[in-house]
Amino acid sequence: MTGRFGEGAGCRNPGARLTVQSNQNGLACPGQYFDDHAGETQMLSEEDKGKLANRLRRVSGQVAAVQRMMDEDVYCVDILTQIAAASGALGKVGQLLLESHIQSCVADAVRSGDAQRQEEKLAELIEIFRKYASIVD
């Protein structure tokens, strides 16, 4: 299955080397890294990097605008609006990366039938949500 940002977008096991052996489906992120096999470094494809880089450039511009606004003593509410926009844009980058991870790495672990890999990915997702999920009143 291909995620929004392609197969294997940025997925790896924490602490593992960035070498990976593709599975029978050609997914670049099978969820298992091999220290004893030479492989290619698997991160985002060039196309996906470009898409995310464009989003991050927009975020960077928004953050720079916040600094300029503060330097120019712009009305506080206007600055807060710009901060909210930058925060939302950066959050969207994270959402897209998470979506890609679920659609490629997690889905591949589920399809593998390997209970240990499935449990590891489930634990990883739980940790991601603990760290990054925001609960709004």
UniProtKB/TrEMBL annotation:
It comes from the Bacteria. One of its GO terms (molecular function) is metal ion binding. InterPro entries: Metal_Tscrpt_repr, Metal_Tscrpt_repr_sf. GO terms for biological process: negative regulation of DNA-templated transcription. PANTHER family: TRANSCRIPTIONAL REPRESSOR FRMR-RELATED. Belongs to the FrmR/RcnR family. This is Copper-sensing transcriptional repressor CsoR.
